[in-house]
Structures are given as structure tokens and as C-alpha cells.
Amino acid sequence: MSKLQGKVALVTGASKGIGAAIAKALAAEGAAVVVGYSSSQSGAQAVVDDIESAGGRAVIAGGDVASASDASKLVQAAIDQFGRLDIVVNNSGVYAFAPLAEITAAEFHRQFDTNVLGMLLVTQAAARHLGKGASVINISSTITSLTPAATAVYTGSKGAVDAITSVLAKELAPQKIRVNTVRPGYTETEGTHSGGIVGSDMEKGMVAMTPLGRAGRPDDIARAVVFLASDDARWITGDHVNVAGGLQ
Ligand SMILES: NC(=O)c1ccc[n+]([C@@H]2O[C@H](COP(=O)([O-])OP(=O)(O)OC[C@H]3O[C@@H](n4cnc5c(N)ncnc54)[C@H](OP(=O)(O)O)[C@@H]3O)[C@@H](O)[C@H]2O)c1
Predict the structure, then answer these.
(1) Which end of the chain is less crowded, N or C, counting CB atoms within 10 A of the terminal residue's CB?
(2) What is the mean predicted confidence (pLDDT) over 47-52?
(3) Domain span including residue 226
(4) Distance, CA 20 to ligand 1 centroid (Å)?
(5) Is 7 helix (H, G, I), strand (E, B) or coil?
(6) Where are the strands (E) in 58-198, listed by range?
(7) pTM higher than 0.90, yes or no?
(8) Is there an atom of ligand 1 within 6 Å of 172 CB?
């Protein structure tokens, strides 16, 4: 039997990149999936179309995770469309890198609002509906242990994701809700293309440091998320799983 049959999942930022692969992988294991997006409705719809073509169930839901009312709407979409919520993947994220001298308050708030506040607001709204056996998976990054120069804002935001995950794992444990992070290494996505990382010295450096010797693929990350969402990971909470070809 499929590992996630009968479960309902919300994946934020699933219109492209790692989130799209996670939505498809959860659906392939039997979960009904809410495919969250912010600006790319057509991208989210294409993910739903792929899932439905493969025999799965999915709907799109739009909203800015950094808005409390939008975060509630994303969660409500799962309840309205599928009647329950069991799996939350806080994947929405933005990244840009700059040395200390070039950090601006606006860029700090852009990254922390989406990466940290968004994760908190979606989890807060979801926790009202999650029950025994539910799983929250926050997409962090191996950057929190690599701590490269000129990444203070992004690394700081993902460090906050790691710390908050450890706190919420304890806070939600009495309800038997598990909370973990997946920390991808460098992974080629629409975001790394549009951010100018693909083909850059930064990309070459990350691949050179990766023992398995290549960039990650979104589906590499999705498989670890499926595991953490499933009952196979029933004894794992408050943990941080590097999925990075050995990069750490
Ligand atoms: N790629 C990597 O090398 C790498 C490595 C480690 C960790 N990560 C993390 O993995 C996650 C996905 O990264 P990616 O490379 O797949 O990114 P991506 O291709 O740029 O996709 C980002 C997704 O986040 C959504 N999003 C952005 N801001 C949002 C907001 N305010 N509210 C709701 N959704 C929002 C986007 O939605 P729309 O397109 O609809 O606007 C999109 O679906 C991020 O958390 C990132 O930090 C990535």
C-alpha cells in the first residue's frame, strides 16, 4: 500500500522547484495535496495537472505565507477540499546573498518574513487542525552549518528555522505531532536559475565541496520529505536531516 494513503498534505511554494517535486512525490504515495503558490498560479496548476494525470488528487491555493490571513486560507483549502490536514511542508523561501556592507533592512525583512514568519504563521494555522501522527517538515538548508561569508541574512533566516523547529517539536509533541527540518544542499531549481546561481562560481564551489559530486535535484529532496511525512519516521522529531550528497 502507498505510504501516505488517506493523508492530506499542504506544501507551500509548490509552484516550482523543490516544492513542486515534494508535492508530486507526496501525491505519488497517495496523499491528497494542496499546492501552494504566491505569484505563479500557472506553475501551481501545472503541478496539479501532473498529479492528476498520474491518478492523484491535488488543488492549488494562492497566498503570501507572511500574511496571517493568507496562511490561514492555505490551511483552510486543505480542510475545505479534502476535510483534514496531516502533513505540512513549509517550503516557501526566498534567497539572495550580499556582504555585510550591502545588507539592507528591506532585504532582511523580505527573507525573514517569508522564510521565518511565513513558516510560523502556516504552522500556527495548521496546528489547529493537525492531530496524532501529523508531520510538519520545514525546509531549511545545509547553509546553516556551512555558514559561508556574505550570506548572513539567508543563513540567519534558516538558522532561525532550525531553532524554531527544535522548539515546536517539543511544543507539539504532547499532541503527537512531529516537527523536523530537511536541509537541502545546493539544488538546481527555477530559483537558482533566476537568481544567477546556475553557472556561477558559487555553484561550482558548492558542487566541488559536495562529496557525491553533483548538484542536488528537487526529487532528491522530495524523497526525504516523503520519509519524514510517513509512519516510517514515527520516532523522529526535532531532527534536522541533511539531504545534500554529503555536503555539510
Ligand atoms: N535551491 C537550493 O539550492 C536550496 C538549497 C537549500 C534550501 N533551499 C530552500 O528550499 C526551498 C525552495 O527553494 P527553491 O530553490 O525550490 O526555490 P524557487 O524555485 O525559487 O521556488 C520558491 C517557491 O516559494 C514560493 N514563495 C516565495 N515567496 C513566497 C511567499 N511570500 N509566500 C508563498 N510562497 C512564496 C514561490 O512561489 P511563486 O513562484 O508562486 O511566487 C515558489 O513556489 C526554499 O525554502 C529554499 O530556501 C533551496
Answers:
(1) N
(2) 98
(3) 8-231
(4) 10
(5) coil
(6) 58-62, 87-90, 135-139, 178-184
(7) yes
(8) no
